[in-house]
Specification:
32% strand; SH3 type barrels; elongated; alpha+beta
């Protein structure tokens, strides 16, 4: 009889452990949004909204992975609180559309 209780306890711990990582991820995302509002990064995203449709030069570490340098010349297509949709021409003259995080943008120059 004791084995049934131990088995039920182990099964309950296993089921709770399965859903816990998802809840932790959602809670972390909420905390990040709250911290951004406290720091004023929400103001940054409002400023980025003004760039929609304009050609810019963006300095970011993400650009290093995209075009091989820290600066990328692009057109801002859309923005929200966290992301920025940009379009640029790669080395092979292909038009590429990417999403980058606003928090990863170091500097913006309007061309």
């Amino acid at each position: 009889m004791e084995y049934m209780g131990v088995a039920a306890f182990i099964m309950a711990c296993y089921l709770i452990g399965q859903s816990l990582p998802d809840k932790v991820k959602r809670l972390e995302a909420k905390m990040k949004r709250f911290e951004r509002k406290q720091k004023g990064e929400n103001t940054m995203s409002k400023l980025m909204n003004e760039l929609v449709g304009k050609e810019c030069k963006i300095k970011s570490d993400d650009a290093l992975a995209l075009v091989g340098s820290q600066e990328i010349q692009c057109v801002v297509l859309d923005t929200d609180d966290e992301w920025m949709k940009i379009q640029y021409i790669d080395k092979k003259k292909n038009q590429v559309t990417k999403l980058i995080r606003i928090e990863n943008v170091d500097e913006v120059e309007i061309l």
